[in-house]
Design brief:
single chain, alpha/beta, 4 domains, 6-stranded mixed β-sheet, 4-stranded mixed β-sheet, 17 strands
Length: 637
């Protein structure tokens, strides 16, 4: 309850004054500045660390309960004042609710730090008040200005770490200060430094020793800090929802809380994940054990499954690694279910090696695959279709447990803005804590995969340039005095040789381009790709490239200057794309060198290709090829 009637306290229930006040309140518009004070005070009362200072037991009483007005003659630089009778605010001060939150929290922290207790001070830090002060009890005394400035600076230092409220612009932050008593002793003999002179936007008065002993504000504040820490851990561990409301805890919640408190490698990751235990949802989406969606940071579990906490630890760690290592995005052109199977073998091998929980029966695990990457395992299992019919993920047989979209359910979590940054930061932080705290060794392949996340992949154009460097040789230029340098005119007395290219009978480097010109090609992406090809070819002194345009048939354009490849493109849109004839045309051409590489530009809607020489593919970012490519694939973005 908020009261602004001074020390008289709130009016008695049912009184005429209360009835008239209520009638007036209905007729009068709410003052926005008064509303800001009310909102700020409510936010402070609801803060778990400060709440014990405001609401106490009946035997001891709280530090403060009501909110009172200060005398209007109080200096305006005093926003609020905490005394033995309660919290006071300046009625003429105009501020936002968050600024009042800062001011009220500042005052309450004075009590929590024991600054109101005269037993914690020395006599030189106390100034007796005039007993005619109407806002405070006669035994109250004011702190020395040096002591008050030092206490305010110490409170500001701590308040900055709480990230509560907004410090008003009129009071710039003070330098950090932790020992207010030593600072006050120095400043009493000299003067308060300018940097600390306006440290406080709030004020406080010392109470009597009896009141301080009865209330014991530092003990209350310590309890509030402990309660706030427990509430944060309960929320991270799933004991409380995002709204702070207690919910039923299952063994999966205890398993998730174990990662936060006892397993640093995945602790930061577990703190941001949400376990959704919904039997109807699991039945609707055929989830036999668990599944995960990285975009929503949600793990969906089947609550009807009877697993122990150790087994749930294994299951949750399995799904969190799927999300953090971005296995859904790494599949790219591969079959998503088969790649999910390959990732299961890798992840389960890591978890067994680290001894995380207990692996439930029926999961995919093969010690012979230790040290293999998911891509290597995929290449092995993709050719064994008979074996694939018997394999199942945590979601079930024939279904992948890495979901492309969040599942709809009540209270769905919001999506992260930058998933790569979130998961990369969580795993790197967890790895640092895990290694520094001596929690044991991490499998080398897992550590390598985590550290690889911290190195962003090369953009497609840089990968394409690297491919050109490897497969398109540069022209060996030489200097010759047979032709004068262009700089010869600047030094006519000094002969300068010029750079010359090889003679015409020397074969110049070249490459082939098989270009998909069907109507499904994105013209913008096509232009970006051709522009990159032209720039890299010119940088390597490649004068011409052999170009074949393909849609329903192949059209040989011959050798074109690299800067003119795009000029000859005409999107024909004549149905399906058949690229194999264009590949065959280049491979059989007498005027195309046998070592010349081939670059295929397509949107993926083409036939299965078989290329017998060095080659690469340039495709849109979200495209997938209908076959397993043998050469590198560069994805336009």
């Amino acid at each position: 309850m908020v009261s602004r009637r001074g020390l008289a306290g709130p009016p008695a229930p049912g009184s005429a004054a209360l009835t008239m006040a209520a009638t007036r309140k209905r007729r009068t518009a709410v003052d926005p500045w008064e509303q800001a004070i009310d909102d700020g005070w409510k936010s402070v009362r609801d803060h778990p660390a400060l709440q014990p200072l405001i609401t106490g037991s009946s035997s001891t009483g709280p530090v403060t309960t009501y909110l009172y007005r200060l005398d209007e003659r109080t200096p305006r630089e005093v926003w609020a004042r905490l005394t033995g009778s309660g919290m006071h605010y300046h009625p003429k001060r105009r501020a936002s609710a968050q600024e009042w939150v800062w001011a009220f929290a500042h005052c309450l922290l004075h009590a929590g730090f024991g600054h109101l207790d005269p037993r914690n001070t020395v006599p030189d830090n106390i100034i007796d008040l005039d007993s005619s002060d109407t806002e405070n009890s006669p035994e109250a005394r004011a702190p020395h200005p040096a002591y008050r400035a030092a206490c305010c600076a110490a409170v500001d230092t701590y308040l900055a770490t709480m990230k509560i409220g907004t410090r008003p612009d009129a009071f710039p932050p003070t330098p950090a200060l932790t020992d207010e008593h030593a600072a006050a002793a120095r400043w009493r003999d000299t003067a308060v430094p300018d940097a600390f002179a306006r440290a406080g936007i709030a004020d406080f008065l010392l109470t009597s020793p009896e009141t301080a002993k009865r209330v014991d504000a530092p003990a209350r504040f310590a309890k509030g800090i402990a309660d706030a820490a427990r509430a944060a851990l309960a929320t991270a561990g799933g004991e409380r929802g995002a709204d702070g409301v207690l919910r039923h805890r299952g063994p999966w919640d205890s398993a998730l809380g174990w990662f936060v408190s006892s397993f640093p490698l995945l602790g930061a990751l577990a703190a941001g994940m949400t376990v959704v235990a919904d039997a109807d949802l699991a039945r609707s989406w055929d989830i036999s054990v668990a599944a995960v969606n990285a975009e929503a940071a949600e793990v969906y579990v089947n609550p009807l499954l009877r697993l122990g906490e150790e087994q749930w630890r294994f299951v949750l760690a399995h799904e969190m690694l799927h999300a953090a290592l971005r296995h859904g995005e790494r599949a790219q052109w591969r079959d998503h279910y088969l790649f999910n199977i390959a990732c299961d073998y890798v992840v389960n091998g890591w978890l067994v090696e680290m001894g995380v929980g207990e692996m439930p029966e029926g999961l995919l695990y093969d010690p012979a695959l230790k040290g293999c990457s998911a891509e290597e395992i995929y290449d092995r299992i993709a050719v064994d279709l008979r074996r694939l019919r018997k394999l199942a993920t945590l979601r079930g047989r024939g279904l992948g447990d890495v979901l492309d979209e969040p599942l709809p359910h009540p209270g769905s979590a919001g999506r992260y803005i930058d998933l790569d940054e979130y998961y990369r930061s969580a795993l790197m932080t967890g790895l640092a804590y895990h290694t520094d705290s001596g929690r044991g060794y991490v499998p080398a392949a897992l550590e390598q995969a985590i550290r690889a996340l911290d190195q962003p992949p090369l953009p497609w154009d840089a990968q394409l340039a690297k491919w050109f460097d490897e497969h398109v040789p540069t022209v060996d230029k030489r200097r010759s005095y047979a032709r004068a340098s262009r700089r010869q005119a600047s030094t006519p007395d000094i002969p300068r040789p010029a750079w010359v290219r090889p003679e015409e009978n020397v074969r110049l480097p070249t490459f082939g381009v098989v270009l998909d010109t069907s109507g499904s090609m994105d013209v913008t992406l096509l232009g970006k790709g051709l522009g990159a090809i032209a720039s890299y070819a010119l940088a390597r002194d490649v004068p011409r490239a052999r170009v074949v345009y393909c849609d329903a048939a192949a059209y040989d354009a011959g050798y074109l200057p690299v800067e003119e490849i795009a000029a000859g493109v005409r999107v024909r849109g004549r149905g399906g794309t058949v690229l194999q004839p264009g590949i065959r045309l280049l491979e059989r051409a007498d005027d195309f060198p046998a070592e010349g590489p081939i670059l295929v530009i397509t949107d993926g809607q083409c036939d299965a290709l078989r290329i017998r020489r060095e080659h690469a593919f340039l495709v849109p970012a979200n495209a997938s090829l209908p076959f397993t490519p043998k050469g590198p694939v560069f994805r336009l973005r």
